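Tutorial, part two.
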Amino acid sequence: MIKKLINKLLGKPEAAIVTPLGKRVEVGAEEHRIDPELLDERGVKVVKGLTDAGFEAYIVGGAVRDLLLGRRPKDFDVATDATPEQVKNQFRRAFIIGRRFRIVHVVYGRGREHEVIEVSTFRALLTQDDAEQVQGNEKTSKGALEGKSHVVDASGRVLRDNVWGPQIEDAARRDFTVNALYYDPVRQIVVDYHGGLADARKKVLRMIGDPESRYREDPVRILRAVRFAAKLGFTIEPKTRAPIQAMAPLLANVPLSRIFDEMIKLLQTGHSLASLEELRKQGLARGLFPILDAVLDKDGALPDNVHGKFVRLALEDTDKRVAEGRSVAPSFMLACMLWGDVQQRWKRLIDGGEGPVPALQQAIDLVFDARVGDISGRGKLAADMREIWMMQPRFERRTGSGPHRLIEQPRYRAGFDFLALRAEAGEIDPALADWWEDFALGDEDERRALLDQARETQRQGGARSRPKPGGGRVHSVPRGAVGAAVSGESAAAVPLDLDVGDAAEGADADGEGAGANPAKKRRRRRKPKAAGGADAGPAGSGE
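Running the prediction step on this input gives:
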């Protein structure tokens, strides 16, 4: 510290902080105890294919960390000394992708059952002095980035990193010690340069090198620290935690799509509530994600009201589905999180004299512009969410042919699950969700009786209520307005374009493709507990 102060007073430049290279340690099977049954045969096949061709290759990163913890990894990444072009030449279906980091996707299988093994080349450990600096970011400096291999922006964030190097340097440029582990499934050895094996066993998340410098290189490491701590139940080591709040403003320079993707990972990897709590502990709950700003209170917690309970139930059920190996979709989860914001704007527009249906359409557009922004894949995400939201007032119209048309909609099951969740949270009368469940599962005689019942109830009912923010009765729409203006076809028409939504295409509330009669496929909804129990209908709508 004194040396830094003297150099500053004398006008001398500070020496670059060097990340330690570490020392190679090979750990045998008797010590690491990785269960071969947890390995992915296609990941092993990629490693063997590269080693048979004369290259070094290892399963790397989070997969090794999870294997050491006795978990079956979701993804199996491979690191090798082969260049992307050499990797591509070894496999029939391999594709080079990326600009910031050039990697290879080796694809096995087709359709929804396909699997991608991501293969990266060992990268060199370079300092900022070795890099070329540009003003601006990926979008504003595209011309300056053309043809360059190692580039940083004015804050030190890495914009390009495609300089190959030895494995020891590749390990040093990774973020946390538990992610800098390499596993050779052929020889069954773990290669550890930075004590990652010991940290994994102690459940400690430790940054390799100087944390502040590493956060400057890539501010998204801040969010990765939060996610891994929540997901793994690890403690963030004090030196790694100390600069987090001071470095958080650097996240403003990261592309919106990447920030959005990290938020989805925080909320959809099975530990959403733990992730929200970890964000709060690190002082990051508010101000980073506009979607969370719409949900959390000033203290960074879910509010103690109907909408807070609604979101909590949705997140709890998402976590449960992930734990059970079932699919989830960002569209359903985000529709739950932003529903309160949509309701508030919808009510203001109606109070201003707008008709209920156009007011809901305008409210949805306003929420997307304010909370989601212009990100890749927004069109698909927006269409799914809009359809779920626009379906809600249609559930109140239970006469004529409307109910028959509604249950035939491809997204009916997602819309109904949303309705059932609202009922469980206490926002609407559970009898409405029960009626729709019975109607969807009933035969023609049962449906006719239910329609007669609804007609009689409507005849005896009083004045219709208007939308109430935060709960109350389901929003009412004048007779005929919904059928005329909110058809399933027009509701999804949004001139908008999310990589995270691609896998959800064509999926329904239970992660299955929409069939000829999606309503009849759903299993019977659990009845809400009188005191607001935690058992909710499926919160994931197929990823």
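The chain is about 45% helix and 10% strand. In part three we will examine how such features are distributed along the chain.
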